[in-house]
Amino acid sequence: MNKIILISLLLVSTMFAKTFMFTAIPDQDETKLNERFSKIAKYLENELHVKVKFIPVKSYAASISAFRNNQVQLAWLGGLSGVRARLLVKDSYAIAQGIEDPQFHTYIIANTHTNLKKSEIFPMNIKGKTFTFGSKGSTSGRLMPEYYIRENLKNSPDELFKKVGFSGNHSKTISLVQSGAYEVGAVNFKVWDRELKAGNIDTSKVQVIWKTPAFPDYQFTIRGDVDEQFGKGFSKKVQAALIKLDDKEILAAFPRAKFIESKSSDFDPILKVGREIGLID
Amino acid sequence: MELKKFFGGALHVDISNIPTYYEALLNTLAIAILAIFISAILGFFFALYFKYTIVRVSLAFTRAIHELFWALLFLQIFGLNTLTALLAIILPYSATLGKVYAEILEEHDSFPKELHVKGKISAFLYTKLPDAMPYLISYTLYRFECALKSTAILGFIGLMTLGYFLQGAFMQGNYGEVWLLLILFYIIIATLRFWFTKYSTPFLIVASFFYLDFVSGFSMENLTRFLTHDIIPSPLRKEQGFEVLFNWFSNIATHELIPGVLNTIVLTQIALIVTALIALLCFPFISKKFSNLPTRFGGGILLVILRSTPEYILAYLFLQIWGPSMLPAVLALALHNGAIIGFIMGQQTNELKLRIDTTKKKIELFGFEVLPRIYSSFLAFLFYRWEVIMRESAILGILGIHTLGFFIDSAIADIRLDKVVILLFFTAMLNILVDYISRRVRSYLRISTTINCELK
Amino acid sequence: MTKLVLKNETLGYESVTVLKNISLSIQKGEKIALLGKSGSGKSTLLKKLHSLDTQNISYIPQELGLVDTLSVFHNVYISQLDSNSTLYNIRNLIKPAKKEIQNIAPILKELHIDDLIFKKCGELSGGQRQRTAIARAISQNKNILLADEPISALDEFITGKVVDSLFHRFETIVCALHNVDIALKYFDRVVGIKDGQIILDKQCAKITSDDTNQLYHVCDDQF
Predict the structure, then answer these.
(1) Nearest to B107 by CA among B130, B124, B126, B131
(2) ipTM given for this complex
(3) Does the CB of C69 have a partner CB in chain B at under 8 Å?
């Protein structure tokens, strides 16, 4: 009797062979995201022997809610969005991050018209300029720059700047400051470095003026119930697959030198800052 | 600079991209068709029970919240899927249809009472409904066109419709792609009368029904969590007592609600005035009384394009060009609504019968003969669009102007749905208030019109 | 039962008095033409008479009360709605029953509009619309007809046919008219209204040109 139940359960489970879905915060240009994640979906499919599908979203909030609603089981999130996602899904944890991610930075960039120069200490003279963050839910584009602005200038961005905007993503922040639509902006250092290398930035128009101290950022976060959904040890398998990834093309698309193990508590500093600023309850 | 790039993009339209959009294109059509079908049925039943206050109030409320806001909310419950898109359209659309259907049915009550038919259903089917039918159908068709636009725009927040690619193309400055998508969009709208006919409609509805997958997104668990947890104000959820709750609310009120409401009102009012100016300036260009055929042709095309392009898309474009401020929002709202009003006014002036010996000077003709005759209907149109402009002003906040939409979007980014619900509630209230005032003003204006007639 | 009587009645709508202290008695079998200028109160009087005995009276309002988007058939069938079940009515709305068509067709033939049976009323001429309303009244099978200018748009030949048909189908008729000649040619009795009063009530044979002149003024351009 038990056997029959087991067999029929197996049959049913193969009939409804689940697809492992994952998403990512849309922190840069869409074409770059699609290129990056379609490659890694293929890689994971080969490694995990299940169908893997990337679900593109248009906002940080949408990636968190998809993770929360179990419409995706894995997500490439920022420091802040990762903390938020793990607060909402109790049984979820960080499994991997880029080797550079524990020591992440934000660049404060300025249009050259402003005559703001690169400095080692916080550029107090950005006060009164127009300023753009990246996305409202971004760590390097919002949380950390806002934290350092508040700490150094002792006031909220709305009070300090002539105009505060949210460009939507890091690529857009660079182009808005370069075009002069905003005088100053905050951008993910990885995105900046890669765009600079690719020759997409006109340094006669926009330059880095300050680099924040290091903070932990991006990571892969997985739902705790994936083992139930995809078989015992599945999350370990995902973690192992990510860490042993050595495909140069995929790594370059992120861009990360390699992936290393990560755990949720690595991001406690982000949670603390998030609470301080009032972005997390 | 950016403007030059935008118009330059028109030269770089790459038709070979079209297959990339097939899915989004079919989704847009299927969602709009199914949503308007369901909305029409619901709206009809709402219209029958419109005399009950509870029906009227709930319809006013659902209608007052923009479909994009509904979509943002449903995104949190059902995720990025067809169900979210369908509900986001059906809720406000069935409410609007319900109200307008009720008004049409009331207006078309011309059957003489002396020929009283006792059977209520038979009387409705034989006397009221056939009389009202042409008006019901033509209004539903108009609403279908709106639904197509709304569905396309839902793509801007991630649903797989035309707006999905449009937003991506805008974001990355691929203006060639923007042009291609806009042209596809105009073709769909312009050819509507040819493919949405009384013969094709049943087929289209059935096909849409089978094409769309609107079951897979539904999860009772997520819905329950939303209703019993997410939207409960966090101090209540954490049982922190009345004082914390009060502080929580007053914080929202002072930092988000009040500034949001004020900015929304300011944007609405400026946009309304500029709308009026644009309408007055542009209607002569499509009017036989003022312009020759080539001018009317050119003016007509320009107005139709502005009229068919949703405010949201215009605003998105202008924001890319000028950066975020009130100006792009005002211009987007005023151009779209000004074109709508200007178009109707132009058509109205064509119907005017003026004396043969009227002045040949255009400005005098405008000021002494034409404008005075259509001025009261012009005001009525303006007040009618007032509510629409306010709905849109609120939503444009998502693009970065500090109207209510900005704070709602921020609350969603922070996954604070309790705050989202409060802000949405007051957004709806503001809209209902404006709708109420506008209705009062319009009925007052109508009275004064008849007084004028009697004085003549 | 078929006698309609008004005694010292004052008629009007809302606060406006149209007819003051009028008395009128209509006997079974009478064919009465109601004359008077536009706005003199003919319609008000007819409506009042109709309210005296709605059971036995067919009424044709001046605006005819046709549903433009329905066919001639349906507009005539409207008079049968209350004697049939809702389900049967819905069935007839979608596809008319043969039986009902056979009931209605002869009436339309009498009025020379049988070829228009499935044409929408919105597409008909004024005269055709009037005849559709008349057909609806006839199909009610009642004894009395009250009609408010039902033949004003008909040509001379058709007028004769229609009046014949009405006289044949109804026992008692009160018909508001514009045209004095038609009144004198076909009807038995003329009732004339002016300034809120009945100023003329005679058998047709006794009507003089003075009577009609007084009713309309000589110079009136109505005839």
Answers:
(1) B131
(2) 0.86
(3) yes
